[in-house]
Design brief:
With 468 residues, this protein is α/β, with parallel strands linked by helices. Helices cover 32% and strands 19% of the residues. The protein has a 6-stranded mixed beta sheet with strand order 3-4-2-1-5-6. β16, α14 and β17 form a beta-alpha-beta unit. α9 runs parallel beside α10, α10 packs across α12 and α14 packs across α15. The protein is elongated and about 75 Å long.
C-alpha cells in the first residue's frame, strides 16, 4: 500500500493537536494558511486556543535542529515522538510518515469562481496544486468543516472528516446502564442462585451465560417491574447483585422528590450511593436529570453532611469566552447560563412552609451552592465536594478529563447531558466528551450510568417532543 498525502485543515489541529501523529505511515502536508490560522487562534484560555498553542509546540519540537533542506524533504513524524507527546499522558501512536510544509507559493491553482483570499479556499487551492505537481500521490484533504468538504468534492479533491476522535462507530452502541432480564431468567437460575441479607440489604450470587454480559454498576430489571437490582461485582465467574432501594416510595423521598419511573429510580440509587464517585446521566430535556441531581446533592450536603458544598459548572456555549464581558464576579457572570439550576432550585424549595421559611432555605442553599466556569477550572482541586457538570455533551474528552481529574478525596462528580443536543462546533454524538467518559468508565465499580428515557415535565411537553 502506497503512502497517502493528507492535507490538514487548521480545525483538525485545533480540535486535536495529536492529529499530527494519528495517520500511521502516511505523510502530512501543512499549508501556510493553516499556520496563519493557528497563530490567529492561539490567544486566550479557551480549549481551541490551548490546542492551537499545543499544535505549534509539537511542530516546533519536530523542527528542532532541522535545516531548510530537511524541511523541504519532509520531517520524520516519529522524531522526538515520545518527547512531544509527553504532556498528553497517552501512549505514543504509530507515526511512520513525514511532515511537509508549504515552502513555495502555488499561484493559479484555484478555480476563478472561488476567491483565494478566503482561508478555506486558500487551503483548497493548495490541495489542488499538490495534486497537479504530484500526480503519483493520493492527495486527500482532511477537515472538520462540512462546507469545505463539499467544496473539495465539487472541484474534484477527495476530502475526509477526521475520525480518530470517534469513541464509537454508532451512537446506538453506547452503554445505557441497564439490562432487561429475559422472561425465563429466574427459571434457569433457580437452582444455582444463593441469596442473603446483609445490613438490611438483599444480595444474590449467581452464575451462567447471562452474567458474562453484565458490568459492575449495571442495573438489572424484569419487564413486569417485579425485580430491580444492581451488579455489585464479580467473584471469578460468579456475579453478585443487590436489590436497589425504591425511591418511588414517599418514605424514601430525597429532599421531597420521589422517582417517577424506573430509570429515575436507578439514577437516585447512583446519586445517593456513597460508594459511587462518578455518575453520568443522559436523557432528553424533561427527563429529570438536573432535578434529581440537585435533590440528591442538597440531601447529602445539607441533611447528611456528606459533602461540604455543591459546585455547579457548565461550558458557556455558544459565545464561549464572552463570559468575560459580563459584569460582576465569576459566579455572577455564570448566572445567565444557569437557568436550569435556578428553575430546579425553585421547585426544590417551593415546598418549604411560608415566605420566611422559603427565604431562610434559599439563603442557606445559596451559601452551599457555588457556580463556577469551566474556563477557570485548571489547577483547582475539589475536596469533599458534590460537583455537577451540566450540558456535558458540549465538552470535548480533554475538557472532561481536565474537570474530572480535579476531584480530591471525598468528592463526587455527576455529568449531565443530552448527546442529541450538541452545540459545540466539530463535536458529534460519537466524538462528544460525554460519550467518551460513559464508554471509558463503564467497567469501573465506583461509577455508574443511566440513560433516562421518559420525559416527566407535562403532557404538553411530552406531546410536543413526539410531533414537533
Amino acid at each position: 500500500m502506497s503512502k497517502r498525502l493528507f492535507v490538514l485543515d487548521s480545525n483538525v489541529l485545533m480540535h486535536d493537536p495529536t492529529a499530527l501523529f494519528r495517520f500511521q505511515e502516511h505523510d502530512l502536508f501543512i499549508p501556510m494558511m493553516v499556520l496563519e490560522e493557528l497563530d490567529n487562534n492561539k490567544k486566550g484560555h479557551s480549549e481551541v486556543a490551548r490546542n492551537a498553542r499545543q499544535a505549534s509546540r509539537f511542530m516546533d519540537e519536530l523542527m528542532q535542529g532541522a535545516s531548510h533542506a530537511d524541511i523541504e524533504q519532509g520531517l520524520p513524524l516519529d522524531r522526538h515522538l515520545h518527547e512531544v507527546l509527553e504532556e498528553t499522558d497517552e501512549p505514543p501512536p504509530n507515526a511512520g510518515g513525514r511532515l511537509f510544509f508549504q515552502t513555495v507559493a502555488y499561484p493559479g491553482a484555484l478555480p476563478e469562481h472561488l476567491p483565494g483570499n478566503l482561508p478555506d479556499n486558500n487551503i483548497l487551492g493548495t490541495a489542488l496544486a499538490l495534486r497537479e505537481r504530484m500526480p503519483e500521490r493520493d492527495v486527500t484533504l482532511v477537515t472538520k468543516d462540512i462546507n469545505l468538504r463539499i467544496k473539495a468534492a465539487v472541484v474534484g479533491i477527495p476530502a475526509e472528516d477526521y475520525h480518530n476522535d470517534k469513541v464509537l462507530e454508532d451512537v446506538e452502541l453506547l452503554y445505557r446502564g441497564t439490562y432487561e432480564l429475559p422472561p425465563d431468567f429466574w427459571d434457569r437460575h433457580a437452582r444455582d442462585m444463593d441469596s442473603w441479607l446483609e445490613e438490611g440489604r438483599t444480595f444474590y450470587r449467581l452464575q451462567g451465560p447471562d452474567t458474562t454480559r453484565w458490568v459492575p454498576g449495571e442495573f438489572l430489571y424484569s419487564a413486569d417491574g417485579s425485580f430491580e437490582a444492581v451488579v455489585r461485582g464479580f467473584d471469578n465467574e460468579t456475579a453478585i447483585i443487590e436489590t436497589v432501594r425504591d425511591y418511588r416510595s414517599p418514605a424514601n423521598a430525597v429532599w421531597g422528590i420521589t422517582a417517577r419511573n424506573r430509570e429515575q429510580n436507578f439514577a437516585l440509587n447512583l446519586l445517593m450511593d456513597p460508594e459511587i464517585d462518578f455518575v453520568t446521566l443522559l436523557g432528553m430535556a424533561g427527563t429529570g436529570k438536573t432535578l434529581l441531581t440537585l435533590a440528591a446533592g442538597l440531601q447529602q450536603t445539607l441533611e447528611d453532611n456528606r459533602y461540604s458544598e455543591i459546585v455547579m459548572t457548565r461550558v458557556t456555549v455558544p459565545v464561549g469566552e464572552d463570559i468575560g464581558f459580563l459584569p460582576g464576579t465569576e459566579e455572577e457572570k455564570m448566572t445567565p447560563w444557569m437557568g436550569a439550576l435556578m428553575d430546579n432550585l425553585e421547585v426544590l424549595t417551593h415546598s418549604e412552609g411560608g415566605e420566611w421559611g422559603r427565604a431562610a432555605t434559599n439563603e442557606l442553599i445559596a451559601k452551599r451552592i457555588k457556580v463556577r466556569s469551566v474556563n477557570f477550572m485548571r489547577g483547582r482541586t475539589f475536596l469533599n465536594r458534590y460537583v455537577i457538570i451540566d450540558e456535558a455533551q458540549n465538552l470535548t474528552s480533554k475538557q472532561l478529563k481536565t474537570l474530572i481529574t480535579r476531584a480530591g478525596p471525598g468528592t463526587k462528580i455527576v455529568c449531565l447531558g443530552n448527546i442529541a443536543q450538541i452545540d459545540t462546533p466539530y463535536l458529534t454524538e460519537t466524538t462528544s466528551g460525554l460519550t467518551y467518559v460513559v464508554d471509558r468508565f463503564r467497567q469501573w465499580a465506583h461509577s455508574g450510568h443511566v440513560t433516562l428515557v421518559r420525559g416527566e415535565r407535562s403532557r404538553l411537553a411530552d406531546f410536543s417532543s413526539e410531533v414537533l
